[in-house]
Amino acid sequence: MPSHKGPVVAQGSGAPASNRETDTVELAELGPLLEEKGKPGIAVPAKAEAEQASPVPQEEEEEEEREEEEEEKGEEQMRVLTLPLQAYRAMEKMEEFVYKVWEGRWRVIPYSVLPDWLKDNDYLLDGHRPPMPSFRACFRSIFRIHTETGNIWTHLLGFVLFLFLGILTLLRPNMYFMAPLQEKVVFGMFFLSTVLCLSFSWLFHTVYCHSEKVSQTFSKLDYSGIAILIMGSFVPWLYYSFYCSPQSRLIYLSIICVLGISAIIVAQWDRFAMPQHRQTRAGVFLGLGLSGVVPTMHFTISEGFVKATTVGQMGWFFLMAVMYITGAGLFAARIPERFCPGKFDIWFQSHQIFHVLVVAAAFVHFYGVFNLQEFRYSLKGSCTDDSLL
Ligand SMILES: [Zn+2]
Fold first, then answer.
1. If you measure from the C-alpha of residue 367 to the centroid of ligand 1, how many angstroms do you get, rounded to a whole number?
2. CA distance 117 to 121
3. Which of 116, 161, 162, 323 is the most buried (most CB within 10 A)?
4. What is the per-residue pLDDT across 236-249, written as a single tens digit (0 to 9) for each?
5. CA of 190 to the centre of ligand 1 (A)
């Protein structure tokens, strides 16, 4: 907010006020930074400064000051304390900035002027949000166009989609399940992990520009969400794929939990979110996902390739893996923006493609698991029919 300036013409005399006078009025608004005459203070008394600076004759000025004295009831006798004027103006500018942000009056800025903690992808040249230390402003920015708009909406819509899918699946009549409670818990874990991952993600992208601390906290949640999604995706897949081998199922479930929790612990490392560790991040999550190769091999060797690709839904899980790997690869290599810096600032940047592939892969995974469940139901949960599985 612009500050209120004092009168520029001194009352009575008609003489122009000195800079000192304007400053005094400005500082007088500070209130708590003023102290009455006689009490300790650092700043120069207004009167002493005036004697040096004012072009008005001494006599006239004294008269003028007497008038002011009457009007302002001794206010000019107060002494300015502590903060130099420059610091006050800097504070004022900051306040003005925060107010503008609160009102939603901010403009996108180029990468070059971003503070270090907001610098992530130097191939996105323009369209960045400025640092906005207000959650209200961050959430209102969901409806503005900037580098994060696509990232926010891809996972916000994905979150809504999986919330609905989850509710529909869990509300399915129990007659469609062999062990309704157990199977709904298994599906529930998958949907919970998906919904958590997607909501951590869109929240992170929304408040990313709030402040360094908030950005760091939410980026840890975002990365933990990916590990949670991978763990949660393994649960129904292992449950139905090793339906008749409870021991193998338990071992694989335990291993993926240990690996997933380890990835979450690594994600708490402060430097994990730094741009130079982009490949490390992609590697950690790729490794976690690719740990699924071991149970896949186990299933294929014990049941045969034909069964693996038919009743085992391997085709869908393979497609899901290809989508995740493609997404992680584009994310790590920052394709396509690296080939045309500045052309993908708002739409079709690598991170958005990665987001879309994550949602699509999670959907394909759900479809595969849904088919596994249907197949198990068609067998009435039997493990004796060797000709089928
Ligand atoms: Zn993201």
1. 23
2. 11
3. 162
4. 999 999 999 999 99
5. 19
